[in-house]
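User: My collaborator sent over this chain with a note saying "see what the structure looks like." That's all I know about it. Can you take a look?
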Amino acid sequence: MEDLDQKPLIVQSDKTLLLEVDHPAFEEARTIISRFAELEKSPEYLHTYRITPLSLWNAAASRLSAEAIIDALYKFSKYPVPQVVNAEIATQLSRYGKLKLLRDETGDLVLHSKDANYIKEISRNKKVQPYLQGPKDANTIYINPDFRGHVKQALIKIGFPVEDIAGYDQGNEHKFELLTITKTGRDFIIRDYQKASIDAFYAGGSVEGGSGVVVLPCGAGKTIVGIGAMHAVGAQTLILVTNTLSIRQWKNEILDKTTIKEEDIGEYSGDKKEIKPITIATYNILTHRKKKGGEFTHFHLFSSNNWGFIVYDEVHLLPAPVFRMTSELQAKRRLGLTATLVREDGLEEDVFSLIGPKKYEVAWKELEKKSWIAEAKCVEVRVPMRSLMRGMYSVADDREKFRLSSENPEKMRAIGVLLHRHKNDQVLIIGQYIDQIEKISKRFQIPLITGKTPLSERTILYQAFRTGEVKALVVSKVANFSIDLPDANVAIQISGTFGSRQEEAQRLGRVLRPKEGGNQAMFYSLISSESSEERFSHNRQLFLTEQGYEYYIYSYEQFKGEYGTYMDILRERKKMKEQEAT
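Assistant: Without extra context I'll predict from the sequence alone. Here is the result:
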C-alpha cells in the first residue's frame, strides 16, 4: 500500500485544497497549484487553496490543460481526488474557448461556437441581448462592434469566458530600436523571464496575442516588459500610470534604453497636457471631472490619437471609470502590468474581460533564487498597548479602534530599536496617518515625504537616498505606488490599510530591487497586539505566503530578546567609552 505520508495534499469536494507546509514536496506542489488555484488561508502548518472558475479560466488562457491540472492533483493528493472536482476542472477549462469573438470572411464581428446550444442559450439571455445583432447561422451570431468589450463583460458574469481573437487595429506606426548600451553607459539586455512575458503577450503579432496581463514582482522590471512590448508592437502608444512621478520614471527608462527621441514623448497630467506618439498619462487625470456626476474632462485622450497600443501600469489599481472606457477600446492591443491580480473591489473578472487574461506570471521566490530580486525576510512585531491607550481603545468604534491601534505610541520604541539595528542600511518607514509619520520624522530627525511634498523636493530627497547621503526616509502611502528606490533594503511598515494584499505587494516591492554588495532585504510590520490590526493582518500574511515568503511573528518581548545581544553590545561599548573618558 502506498505511503500516504509521501503526499502533501488533501483535495476536498468543495474544491478546496489543503497543503502541508512542512512536507518535503511542499515547494513543488505549491508552484504547480498556484497556477490554477487561489490561496485563501495560510496558517503555519496548513495552507488552503480554492479552485474557482476564474482561476481555471486564467489557467486555460495560459494553455494549461485540464489533464495537466488533474494529473497534478493526483500526483500530490493523499486520497482519491473527488470526481466532482475533476468534473468542475474539465467543465470550466472547456468553457474557455467554447465562445470565440472573431471576424468573419466579410470582416464583421461575430460570436462563434462549435456547439449551437451555447449560441441558443446566449441569444435568450436578457443581459447579453442588447449587444447582439441577430444570427448568422446556428453556430454564429453578429455582435455590434461598438460593444466588443461590453459583450465579454456580460458573458463572463453568466459563466461564459470569451476567447477574443477578432484582431486589432494597427494604429499609427512608431517603430524604434532597443539599445544594447544605455544612455547612462550600462549594458542592457532583456532578461529571459522578461522576454518570455513579452513573447507570451505578443504571440508573434497573431490574434492569439495582443491583450492580457503580465504578473511580475516589484523590482523585476515590469517597465522593461512594457518597453519590450512597445518595441514588438511598433505603434504609437498610450501608457497609463498611477502618478506624476511614475510618468517621469517611465520617460527616463524609455529615453535611457531606446532610440525614441524626447520630443516624441508626451506627459498628460495635472501639470502638462501633451499628446505625442508616446504619451504617458495618470489615472487621476483621466478620472477628473469638474463636478460630481459630471463628464470626465479628459476621456477624449483615448480617441485623440490613433493609438496602436495601450499599457496599463499597476493594473490592479485601474479605476472603474477607466474600465468603462476600456470596454470601447477592444480593437487596441492592451497590456496590463501588475505585481498581483488581487483587486480590493473584486473586479478581477473585468480585468480578465477587458484587459485580457493572465498571459505570464513568475513566482517571486524563483526570481529571488536567481538574484534578479533581493532575498527578503518578513517580520511582524506585535507591540503592546499601555493601559490608558487600551482604555480608549475598548470604548472606541471600529474605525477609531483601527486608528488608535495603528498610531500606538509604543511603536516608537520598536522603531528606535530597528533604526539602531539598521543604522548602516537604507531604511524606509512607511505609514498611513500623517500625524503619526510627522511625529516619527520629528523625533528621529528623518526627512518626510507625503502626497503634499512638491515633486521637486521629492526628487531631491530620493536622489539623496539613492546616493546614501540620506540613510532613512519617512513616507506616507505614496510608497504604495511606483517609486524607484533601488537602494532601499529595509522597510518598516507602521500603519496602513493592512487588509490590502495589493498594498502589501507594493510596500514589499520597495525593498526587492537587487542590491549591490549583498542582496538581502528586511520587511518589518509593527502591529498593536490584541487589536483590530491583528485581525486585519490575515490578508497581508496571505499575500506574502502566496509568494513563498516565510513570515516571522514576534511579541515585543521576543523581539527585544532577539536583538537584545546587539543592544547589550552597544550599551557595553558606550560604558567603556565613558570609562575611558574619565
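A starting point for your reply to your collaborator: The chain has 21 helices and 23 strands.
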